[in-house]
Specification:
alpha/beta; Rossmann fold; 2 domains; five-stranded parallel beta sheet; 23 helices; elongated
Length: about 500
């Protein structure tokens, strides 16, 4: 049972000198040390930062620093800031009714000091949870000093009969309300310079002037920020005195490998739907979706300063599954199994997530997105088939075969047509397709092979005929074609 009066609090563990003298930064440091000693995960759910960002954050907390996370959009900056609450105690005692979570043993607001002086040990005590001790603000150019620090409230002064310059007349802003907790500002450069000056004055001196009235606010607070590097020049900047008072600048990054990216997307995307057929997403489909983001981040037609958010593959995979779900519902199938055609149907989840350079604008977002899918398919295809011989499949098309696929065609129908392509399904074992795999999985693997061969220009694909012989084949008599093919194969480039 937690103490409910100041007198009971004095005789509880909260009343010990150890607890009463520590700051919020000491509290976070001690809880972090305990987690490290007990081998607990520091940031559960954050993938790919184990050897880069996380050690730097640990060092910043151990150093009792205010910090800033610097990185492009979609790099989990806001999520990391919110998970800092994991280093706070479960609850802390505060003076009941206090707007700024005053410490009962060291009150800083006039109202709490007067209340304790009046009631003494009978002063009522409340408790704040971890979540209640985290305050976040998105910086925008219209944010005022009153929003962050506070303002004089004339109505409050009139009702209480206080002087206009009295502390009792202050309406506290977000920063004082984060006292004994964490105050986070997202997109710091968007904050006006005078507001940033007010912040570093609080950080350094613990006081501020509100409409000309000096107010002493020795807040106990950890201040953390996030920012996009582009914002330093595009929309604003961090004033030098404030930047100088931020202890640690930690740079975030996109997933370093395809496997990390797939793990993040799997974790964040809505894959397992609430009802309906079972959903089975082939690994190669997940990899192609993730590879789209990897290719986009290195594409010269896409603005690198803006970045390609991890939300792109997350939204794309959700759309891919939804398109497969739609097909499954219409066909009455038992499984929802996405295939490459579903990725092309997810273009709306791609085009809205990329900012194009001039060259990209000329070609259009749809064209760029389709090309990114082709590059992603090629990347994954080369991984699974570094040196596989597809001569039998290619010959089937070059002898006049063609195959037009549809994203609404049922799996059983598509599979029966893929079986006509000589040697095609035999090559799908590398993708995990076996003879006892669901028809949808085998069909998806077969389509992946065809898309892969198209991506490396071994076969062609058009709207009219679908997959067909490579367009590089010159027109010639059918009886001479076999000799021509044998001669050309001597000069063919390997798939890898």
């Amino acid at each position: 049972m937690l103490p409910r009066t100041l007198g009971d609090l004095r005789t509880s563990p909260f009343g010990t000198d150890f607890y009463r003298t520590r700051t919020i930064k000491d509290e976070m440091r001690m809880n972090l040390i305990r987690k490290l000693q007990e081998k607990q995960p520091i940031f559960p759910g954050i993938v790919g930062y184990e050897d880069t960002v996380v050690p730097q954050i640990i060092n910043a907390i151990l150093s009792r620093h205010n910090m800033i996370l610097l990185g492009l959009r979609g790099q989990a900056k806001s999520r990391i800031l919110r998970e800092l609450t994991g280093f706070l105690d479960e609850v802390v005692p505060v003076v009941a009714g206090c707007e700024i979570n005053d410490d009962p043993f060291k009150p800083i607001c006039r109202r709490c000091r007067d209340l304790i002086e009046e009631l003494g040990n009978e002063t009522p005590i409340e408790y704040r949870s971890r979540e209640e001790r985290y305050v976040e603000k998105l910086a925008t150019p219209d944010v005022t000093i009153a929003d962050i620090i506070g303002d004089i409230d004339p109505i409050k002064a009139a009702k209480g009969g206080h002087a206009i310059g009295s502390e009792l007349s202050v309406h506290y802003g977000l920063l004082p309300r984060a006292n004994r907790g964490i105050f986070a500002i997202n997109e710091l450069p968007d904050l006006a310079g005078k507001i940033q000056v007010g912040l570093f004055n609080i950080m350094q001196e613990g006081d501020v002037q509100i409409k000309g009235y000096p107010v002493r606010l020795p807040l106990d607070v950890v201040i953390v920020f996030s920012a996009n590097p582009e914002d330093y020049t595009a929309r604003g900047k961090i004033v030098t005195p404030l930047k100088d008072r931020i202890g640690s600048e930690i740079k975030t990054h996109y997933p370093p490998s395809l496997d990390h990216g797939v793990a993040i997307t799997e974790q964040e995307a809505w894959i397992q739907r609430n009802a309906g057929p079972a959903i089975l997403v082939p690994e190669f489909v997940k990899q192609v979706v993730e590879a789209i983001a990897f290719k986009a981040r290195s594409d010269q037609r896409i603005d690198k300063r803006s970045g390609v958010s991890q939300r792109l593959p997350i939204s794309c995979l959700e759309n891919v599954i939804s398109n497969a779900e739609r097909r499954s519902i219409l066909a009455g199938e038992d499984h929802v199994i996405p295939r490459i055609a579903d990725i092309y149907s997810a273009l709306p989840a791609i085009t809205g997530k990329i900012e194009l350079e001039y060259e990209g604008e000329l070609k259009g977002a749809d064209t760029i997105a389709r090309d990114l899918i082709r590059q992603a398919v090629q990347m994954v295809f080369r991984h699974y088939y570094p040196s596989t011989d597809f001569k039998q499949v290619i010959d089937w098309f070059e002898m006049g075969g063609h195959l037009k696929l549809s994203d609404v065609e049922p799996a059983s129908s598509l599979l029966s047509r893929l079986e006509r392509v000589h040697g095609l399904l035999d090559k799908t074992e590398a993708l995990g397709a076996k003879s006892d795999s669901p028809a949808g999985f085998r069909a998806a693997a077969g389509e992946m092979v065809l898309e892969g061969l198209h991506s490396v220009e071994k076969i062609s694909r058009s709207e009219e005929r679908g997959f067909a012989a490579s367009e590089r084949k010159p027109a010639g008599a059918q009886e001479l074609y076999r000799d021509y093919t044998m001669e050309r194969n001597r000069y063919k480039k390997p798939l890898n």
